[in-house]
Amino acid sequence: MFAAVVVCFHLKAEPSVTSVTYPVEEVPTSMAFDGTNIWLTSFWDYNYSVTKLLDSTGAIVGTYLVGPYPQGIVFDGTNIWVTNYYSESVTKLLASTGAIVGTYPVGSLPNGIVFDGTNIWVTNSSDNTVTKLLASTGATVGTYPSESRPVSSGSDASYDLAFDGTNIWVTHIGSGTVTKLLASTGAIVGTYNVGSSPIGIAFDGANIWVVSGSSNSVTKLLASTGAILGTYPVGSDPAQLVFDGTNIWVTNYYSNTVTELLASTGALVATYPVGAGPGAIVFDGTSIWVANQGDNTVTKITPTSTQAPTSTQAPSISPGGIVPLDSTVSIIQPGEWVSIWGSNLASGTTVWNGDFPTSLGGTSVEIDGKAAYLSLVSPGQINLQAPDDTTIGPVPVAVMTSNGTATSTVTLAEFAPSFALLDKTHVAGIILRSDGSGAYGGGTYDILGPTGSSLGYPTVAAKAGDTVELFGVGFGPTYLQVPAGQPFSGESATTNAVQLSIGGTIVTPFFAGLSSAGLFQMNVTISAALGTGDVPLTATVGGVQTQAGVVISLAGQPTGPQPTGITGFWNFTATSAYGFQTYASGQLTQNGNNISGELSLTGTPCATSAAVSGTISGDALSIILNENGQLVTFTGTVYDDANATGTYAAPAGGCTDGDYGIWSGFEI
């Protein structure tokens, strides 16, 4: 499963972009593009209005009244439609002037909205239905259940929608599912599991993409069948996503970033900083617009080029520039993933579709006269899988483009081990989670790394007792011969023993072998004797050692249940069963088993801050937020002193009035 994730870190192109940020109304919530202007809703704007900005300059054109607490927004080709969360209605405005055309009833707590070419569809998050209205008149065509199983009111909020040309897709926060309804009749076609807290959803022309907010990932499903094609890590607390015709862009609320993924493969293209608390996102045909809820701004990201300027110069290969993935040693193994460094190696940046091409973007490579399988070509770098070969020793390498051929040599060897890396030093790996507590893969694993989001996405340091899988290339022959240039999924153990050195302690993996095409996996259980922090890591096979400078992140090793040290500055997200989110941040202090502090609140009408009191026992947390006299109880589990998840509930009556849902948090 993790093979695709590892490859993502090494197939990324880095397009240059320009970005500019504009101030807007308080807590910008949703966005739409009408061909000339960007439209924004502001859920906590008590003027109950939407804002129109000129796309070319970001200048505010006007502000227009709608209903109470405007939430979702969509353009139908002529008009702007807005869901009014607390008035059970939608408002239709003429996009050219902002004049109200009409206001029409829908269900309880309307949230998401989409246009199918003829009709407007709205999610009613409280009663778990969708309403279909004729866009031309606003007349209700029908209201349909958005789940096939019986649910109590508000227990599994219908949140957002997408249209795939035939069907309407609806996300459900509580059940971790999406439902597919036939747009012509509203009949349910199927319901599919996608991961915890699915929120945003988008269609790329063939596939449905869904944000899993609590899993820090996005899931790709085949629209025709609902089959899951992959799950890909993004930043912390992803919220919404959009398709630009080639790539998927995802907002990461707590990372203050946007992640760009190649839609064809899920490979990471780049991560861009934006404002505080990015949520809504829209594409205007050229630029990506992001609504930053934390600082009341919008950011416009415009790629200046995803391709380098076409070169007419002949390609050249750098001296010693043919190396295993993430290595600097010019010795490679047949079938290994390899990088070639140089100049003018391609006219631009092109990434494969997972199909092992021998020509990509006008570039081809031969090693010892045999065609290599290309995964990425760019002017300065080529990534490829070396072809099978029985030769041992120096062999010729040729890079061929329309502007000429570059030649060099590389040494073929039986062993050329190299760890795959997340950055310059941290080994690529995962921690298996049999209890379903992981942040990725539907809870089945965490990505190994320094605890937190310092790498741009959530990672966790391994502790004593954890089973980890480490990834690399070039670890020698395997018992089952796996041909290069073909997909592979399974296990094929190495014929030679692999030994790890972790902090100077020799460890023998209980499995070492291929798990994907050209990708080796080493499974090991972490012991308390291996150290803490970023610990030096090497591997040896066939007398050959991996590259120097690699580390594995290990956490302090607990000796048993004990109070968890959570003193520090925390960020929290609470996702209501009714479909809205509240954000909190502030200092928490632990004194023995007691917790106290003060949090600033965003996204709730009840208060702008809340006093915190509670207790922690082992890793079990129970705290109460006092929001102007409204007491909301949060219970959950703290992991590694720096991450926490759980559920919350408020009593009936008052501002919070029986609200409940899930929450997550992390220490900065």
Give the topology.
Blueprint: H1 3-8, E1 16-23, E2 28-33, E3 37-42, E4 49-54, E5 60-65, E6 70-75, E7 79-84, E8 89-94, E9 100-105, E10 110-115, E11 119-124, E12 129-134, E13 140-145, E14 158-163, E15 167-172, E16 177-182, E17 188-193, E18 198-203, E19 207-212, E20 217-222, E21 228-233, E22 238-243, E23 247-252, E24 257-262, E25 268-273, E26 278-283, E27 288-292, E28 297-305, E29 316-324, E30 331-332, E31 337-343, E32 350-351, E33 359-360, E34 363-367, E35 370-371, E36 373-377, E37 381-385, E38 393-401, E39 404-412, E40 418-419, E41 429-432, E42 445-447, E43 467-473, E44 489-493, E45 498-502, E46 505-507, E47 511-516, E48 519-525, E49 533-541, E50 544-545, E51 551-554, E52 568-576, E53 581-591, E54 594-602, E55 609-617, E56 620-627, E57 630-639, E58 643-649, E59 660-667
Parallel strand pairs: 30-39
Antiparallel strand pairs: 1-28, 2-3, 3-4, 4-5, 6-7, 7-8, 8-9, 10-11, 11-12, 12-13, 14-15, 15-16, 16-17, 18-19, 19-20, 20-21, 22-23, 23-24, 24-25, 26-27, 27-28, 29-31, 31-37, 32-36, 33-34, 34-35, 34-38, 36-37, 38-39, 40-43, 41-42, 41-43, 43-48, 44-47, 45-46, 45-49, 47-48, 49-50, 49-51, 52-53, ...
Condensed summary:
This protein is 1% helix and 53% strand.
* CATH superfamily label of the largest domain: YVTN repeat-like/Quinoprotein amine dehydrogenase
Helical content band: under 10%
Number of E strands: 59
Mean pLDDT: 86
Major sheet strand order: 52-53-54-55-56-57-58-59
Count of separate structural domains: 4
